[in-house]
Amino acid sequence: MFKVLVSDPISDLGIQKLVDAEDVTVDKKPGLSEDELVAIIGDYDALLVRSQTRVTARIMDAGKSLKVVGRAGVGVDNIDLEAATQRGIIVINAPDGNTITTCEHTFAMMMAVARHIPQAYLKTVGGEWDRKSFLGVELRGKILGVLGMGRIGSEVAKRAKAFGMEIWGYDPFLTEERAEKLGIRMSSVDDIVRNADFMTVHTPLTPETRHMISRPQFEVMKKGMRIVNCARGGIIDELALVEAADQGIVAGAAFDVFEVEPPAADHPFLNHPKIIVTPHLGASTVEAQENVAIDVSEQVLNILRDKPFLNAVNMPPIPANVLNKLQPYFGLGEKLGSFVSQLIEGAVEEISVSYAGELAEVDTQPLTRYIVRGVLSHHLGAEQVNVVNSLHLAKGRHVNIVVSNSHAARDFTNSITVVLRSKTATRLVTGTMLTGYGPRIVQIDRFTVDVAPQGNLILVSHNDKPGIIGSVGTLLGDNGVNIAAMQVGRELEGGAAIMVLTVDKGASKELIAKLVELPDLNKAKEINLY
Ligand SMILES: NC(=O)C1=CN([C@@H]2O[C@H](COP(=O)(O)OP(=O)(O)OC[C@H]3O[C@@H](n4cnc5c(N)ncnc54)[C@H](O)[C@@H]3O)[C@@H](O)[C@H]2O)C=CC1
Ligand SMILES: O=C(O)CCC(=O)C(=O)O
């Protein structure tokens, strides 16, 4: 008999299938502390949570029989994925069940902010009949900028069309074909910020999306913008938003999520006349809670019964013989994917991986998953993409994956080449494991290099002229950026060349822009590999 513990309030109807299963007993114990969970988890095979329970390494250590943690929802920020993976505990989520509900909450927020509904309600119930202070705006005819065109963003776009809005969307994986199908304009963050009347964010919180709307964006923002965030706190810089609202740039904002939840009592959003808030209610409908509970219950049953399952967000076990051969390359593969995904412009349409040398002789599928993870996690967030779901996520985004093997490695015992193709560009990176030195990037596009794939890198393309290395070094030095290592690759003396600098701390966007102004320097790009 399998034992399942439900430690958050999860829909009874949703978990009925588990309760009815003859080989399962279900205990519902919401609101337990970590200590209380540690004390009882040893009896259970599965743990079902929403977002309140923090599933820590301590709990998992005590869960000697624990095979699966099921999250009834999308975000798994409350589960220590690394610890689960290390202990062979499968973590699954329910990514589809609350899409429509969160999309509808976004509309509720957008309309409430357009018509000042919470503010007007407060005055009316307070006994005032104030019809002058709450002049609203229509949605019809307005430009709605959607940042993040995944599950929720796409549904928002579809519904906004019914309101007569013009939709401008931005997502690194948005292709022209998909934009056309959705009837939206493919745009950029900058265009949206400068032109939209309403803006809504539907991305995960990643190092790239953190504060993607901050002071520089508010400075150029169309006056009178109304902003909605029902995704994750921190995508929009909260303090910069308050400033922009006070300066009259932002006419209104509606937030369901906060950088720290719950927000402190003196949080500047609370009681701000232009900002309305809800306490992370995006997924809180009867239907969504039922959907996510049904989805997660079904997959937990499959896992307990040793059947194929969906929506795993961490790593499944790999056979020991395969693992031994591939493990040294997992980190390199992921870094190569991340490196080249930070170089490519435009939506990625194809990831092509070539294995050469001894690597071509083993089943490299697990390694391909790491490479694809590296490519996707730059945009989707490392927390959302793992080796279990990376290929599936790529397929869902219509990214073609091509794998080839060549038994003869050119200069190395083994090498991995990753080529990304978008509509407008093709970028290539090759890596290898050098005995005694570890992972190395040995080719970038057509240039031979020798770069350790880690930390903050700056990739510069330039013309091979005397003095250019010095001028780059001086500019970085003058701006307090220390160069730890430097590599130059060129085809011919005096021809096109690249420089890869490993720097001790990240360079600001302004400094990268200054680099490009140097004579004979064509492009500069910062790349983070952690
Ligand atoms: N308020 C709530 O209760 C809920 C919040 N959420 C949150 O909503 C967000 C969206 O969820 P889904 O649509 O299900 O996720 P999804 O994974 O389907 O879509 C996210 C999209 O963001 C895109 N993206 C990543 N980086 C970007 C960038 N720099 N600029 C523009 N787009 C970028 C990705 O390519 C992807 O298409 C997530 O943060 C999720 O945790 C989800 C459900 C409920
Ligand atoms: O379970 C909840 O209410 C939170 C939903 C959420 O934010 C998510 O699924 O990512």
Automatic annotation (TrEMBL):
Highest taxon above the source species: Bacteria
Pathways per UniProt: Amino-acid biosynthesis; L-serine biosynthesis; L-serine from 3-phospho-D-glycerate: step 1/3
NCBIfam families found in the cross-reference section: PGDH (TIGR01327)
Protein family according to the UniProt entry: Belongs to the D-isomer specific 2-hydroxyacid dehydrogenase family.
Gene Ontology molecular function terms on file: phosphoglycerate dehydrogenase activity
EC number of the protein: 1.1.1.95
Residue ranges of coiled coil: none
Pfam families given in the database record: 2-Hacid_dh, 2-Hacid_dh_C, ACT, PGDH_inter
SUPFAM superfamilies cross-referenced by the UniProt entry: ACT-like (SSF55021), Formate/glycerate dehydrogenase catalytic domain-like (SSF52283), NAD(P)-binding Rossmann-fold domains (SSF51735), Serine metabolism enzymes domain (SSF143548)
Keywords assigned by UniProt, alphabetized: Amino-acid biosynthesis, NAD, Oxidoreductase, Serine biosynthesis
Amino-acid biosynthesis keyword on record: yes
Entry protein name: D-3-phosphoglycerate dehydrogenase
Segments forming domain ACT: 457-530
Known function: Catalyzes the reversible oxidation of 3-phospho-D-glycerate to 3-phosphonooxypyruvate, the first step of the phosphorylated L-serine biosynthesis pathway. Also catalyzes the reversible oxidation of 2-hydroxyglutarate to 2-oxoglutarate.
EC class of the enzyme, as a word: oxidoreductase
Swiss-Prot/TrEMBL catalytic activity: (R)-2-hydroxyglutarate + NAD(+) = 2-oxoglutarate + NADH + H(+); (2R)-3-phosphoglycerate + NAD(+) = 3-phosphooxypyruvate + NADH + H(+)
Entry-linked PANTHER family: D-ISOMER SPECIFIC 2-HYDROXYACID DEHYDROGENASE FAMILY PROTEIN (AFU_ORTHOLOGUE AFUA_6G10090)
Organism: Paenibacillus artemisiicola
